[in-house]
C-alpha cells in the first residue's frame, strides 16, 4: 500500500510533534460537514442543565452531560454565551462552543468523513496502524465569544498505556491569528506528560474529576515558545498526544470551524479512570473500518 505521507513529512512529525498537511479535505466535504453541524445545533434542545465548555477550570465541566458524552452527541455552550439574566445573548447557532464526542459513530455524515482509507493510511504512516477512533469534536470558535483553549497535552485527557493518542484536526474555515488559530510547541512532545485528568470517586456517570500532577514543569506560557499554525480551509493538522498546543480566544467577527478526531492504539491499555467512556453497545472501531 502506497504511503500517504512522504518520508520528509513523517520525519517532520517525529521532530516537531505536529504536521500540517494542506488540501487534505475538499470543498464539498467541508460544506457537507458544516451543514450537518448546523443542523444538529438547530435540532438540539437542551434539557436540564445547559452545559458550558471551558478549559480554564476543567472541573466546572465535569457534570453529567460532559461525563456521559463519550457515546453520544451533545452541544456545549460557549462560556460567554449567556448574559447576566441567564439568557442567550445571541442566536443558539452562534452560541455553541462544540459538539462532542461520538458523532463519528452516530451520524452518517461525520461517519463517512472520519472512516476513510486516506486517514487510516496517514495514521499508519506515523506508526498508528491499529488506530481506534476514540472521540470526535466539531469546534465552532464563534465570532467574538469563541473561548480560549488553554495550553495542554491531549494525553492528559485521553490517556493510554503506553501513550498513543494522536489528534487529527481539520480546518473547515481559514484559521488565522485573528480568529484563534492553533499554536504548537515544536519538539514539546519530547518533554513528557505533565498531568492526568481522572474521574474521582465511584465509577458512575455523575462523579467528579481531578487532575493528578506527574511533572510540575510548566507547559509553555502562550504565546512564548509556541508557533502559530495559520492554515487555510481544507488543511489537516496531525498532533502528537504529548504536544503542548493552545488556541486563543476569538474576538474577531469571523468564526473558525474545525473538526477533530482523536485516535488511540488498539494494543494500548485504556484505563477505566479516563473521563471518556463508551457503552458496551457502542464499541470503539478501527479507523480502517470504512463505513458502508
Automatic annotation (TrEMBL):
GO molecular function, one example?
2-oxoglutarate-dependent dioxygenase activity
The yes or no answer to whether the keyword Metal-binding is present is: yes
What protein is this chain from? Phytanoyl-CoA hydroxylase
Tell me which InterPro entries the record gives: Phytyl_CoA_dOase-like
Q: Which UniProt keywords apply?
A: Iron, Metal-binding
Q: Which PANTHER family match?
A: PHYTANOYL-COA DIOXYGENASE DOMAIN CONTAINING 1, PHYTANOYL-COA DIOXYGENASE DOMAIN-CONTAINING PROTEIN 1
Q: Keyword Metal-binding: yes or no?
A: yes
Which Pfam families does its entry note?
PhyH (PF05721)
